[in-house]
Amino acid sequence: MEINNWHKELTYDNWVPVAVSGARPPARYKHAAAVVDEKLYIAGGSRNGRNLSDVQVLDFRSLTWSSLRLKANDGKDDDISQEILPGISGHNMIRWREKLLLLGGSSRDSSDTLTVRYIDIERSQVGVIKTSGSVPVARVGQSATLVGSRVILFGGEDMGRKLLNDVHVLDLESMTWDMIKTTQTPPAPRYDHAAAMHGERYLLVFGGCSHSVFFNDLHLLDLQTMEWSQPQTQGDLVSPRAGHAGITIDESWFIVGGGDNKSGCPETLVLDMSKLVWSVLAVVKQKDPLSSEGLSICSAWIDGEKYLLAFGGYNGRYSNEVFVMRPKAKDFLRPKIFQSPAAAAAAASVSSAYALSKSEQLDFMQLDDTNSKSPINGLPQDDDIDKVEAIKEDKRLLELSIAEARAENSKLGGQIDEVNNTHTELTKELQSVQTQLAAERSRCFTLEAKIAELQKLLESMQSVEDQVQALRQKNSALDQELAATAQRQNSGGGWRWFGGSEK
Questions:
Q1: What contacts 389, CB < 8 A, 6 or more positions away?
Q2: Is 378 exposed, middle or buried (0-12, 13-18, 19+ CB in 10 A)?
Q3: Where are the alpha helices (DSSP H) in 197-278?
Q4: Strands 71-72 and 125-129
Q5: What is the Cα–Cα distance from 271 to 452, expressed in whole angstroms?
Q6: Which residue range(s) make up the domain with 243?
Q7: Furthest C-alpha separation in the chain
Q8: For the chain, how many structural domains are there in total?
Q9: Is the domain of 312 the same as that of 220?
Q10: Coil/strand/helix, residue 479
Q11: Are residues 108 and 227 in the same domain?
Q12: What is the reported pTM?
């Protein structure tokens, strides 16, 4: 595909690897990513237990990677201390005006409280921003969600491996922290979850894990009342996961990757945040880089259209690939549950009932007008009585239709539940079979190795047998020679010679 028009040739709702030119950055996971002016910025991350301190930049136009050479700030700002970016992972990165803000994460110089760093991409400068107020404890694996000029921080794991479920707000104008007191039941303490804002009022938290449990629950925090709730969701089944990445476009929340320390999550999910309905948008192979923990996802405007960009991750090996998706407009992402025959029947039932109500009101208004003109003491005539009876009959038939539609809707709902249960069971069975196949493949590899060893042993044994056979032949020849010598001695020829000489 042409470099300048590579994005226009993409099909909708499919992940495609980006064919970049030149060298790629080191593979990694648990990094942070952001998009600024048609460039993807990747900061930090982890690889083989070592935190990285670089900032890599992908230009969408040329599809080339470059490194941002960082330097410490000049120290003229009293609220910013001088420092070069340390190796860091498990942090968040948010674009705020002309800077990229890095919140939290694990680094060699982690303090007791959460550190806010910045990267000035125009000046290639790095520094630490001094914050005030109720500064939260240092942590990794938290979520940081931008809403207006505030960042909502939730959960994570502190430096002592204590799991957290607290809520903090950072005012970016004053760089002041506030700890938020919430009511109702909060999510269980967790880290490596995903969070998003809906309507600048509701914070949604999905998935994550504790030290022993992986979650697939959805929680909602009303930022006006500061009340937690756990709403019921509909649509496709969602497996537990942690280390996934999420990004919102309008009413849609896209979730990519994640895993449960046993296998990665190959499906890309979409949550309709206004209807709370999950749907599976795309599925990749089990060992695909998109089925990884610790990957990142961003959205980018390119030529007036939004695209999704995913980078990195770990699923047994580290990735440095970039994948892009061209999502359909929101109207095309309508969940299947709202397009089912049962839903259509229910909608038709409501429309029919509404139309019936209006029709009855209109007909009876007309009857009232007719009755007021009746010459017989204002009583309805036979024709009017017939009309009323006909309307009642139509009403009865419509009520029967509504009842039938509701019954069909209930029946289809039961069938949907049954299909979903069957799908879940088949998925579990497939995973079990895949596990067995993996075990059998491992056994096959072991047996093949043993067979190869046995073949080598047989070959060496054949060589030994050939040597033994040669020795046997030599031994037989020696035996024959010894036998001939013994025969000559037994014939007495020597004694005759001596006896002959005496004569």
A1: none
A2: exposed
A3: none
A4: parallel
A5: 52
A6: 6-334
A7: 187
A8: 2
A9: yes
A10: helix
A11: yes
A12: 0.66
C-alpha to C-alpha distance for 358 and 482, rounded to whole angstroms: 129
Q: How far is CA 118 from the centre of its chain?
A: 27
The answer to the question of residue 381 being in a domain is yes
Residues in the chain: 503
- Over the stretch 404-421, which tens digit does the pLDDT of each residue have? 777 777 677 767 877 776
Helix H, strand E, coil C: the string for 145-179 is EEECCEEEEEEEEECCCCEEEEEEEEECCCCEEEE
Q: Which amino acid is residue 91, in one-letter code?
A: H
**Alpha-carbon distance values, 448 to 168, 285, 311, 359, 444 (Å):** 57, 27, 37, 80, 6
Per residue in 316-370, pLDDT tens? Answer: 999 999 999 999 876 434 443 333 333 333 344 434 443 444 444 434 344 344 4
Whether 240 is covered by a domain: the verdict is yes
Hey, what are 274's tokens?
A: 């206004």
Q: Which residue has the tokens 């010894």?
A: 482
On whether the CB atoms of residues 276 and 231 are closer than 8 A, the answer is yes
Which stretch of DSSP H or E encloses residue 482?
Answer: helix 382-490
372 shares a domain with 326: no
Are 205 and 153 within 8 A, CB to CB? no
Residue 199 within any structural domain of the chain: yes
Token digits of residue 254: 């896209």
Bridge-based pairing of strands 252-256 and 139-140 is unpaired
What number of CA atoms fall less than 13 Å from residue 334's CA on the CB side? 7
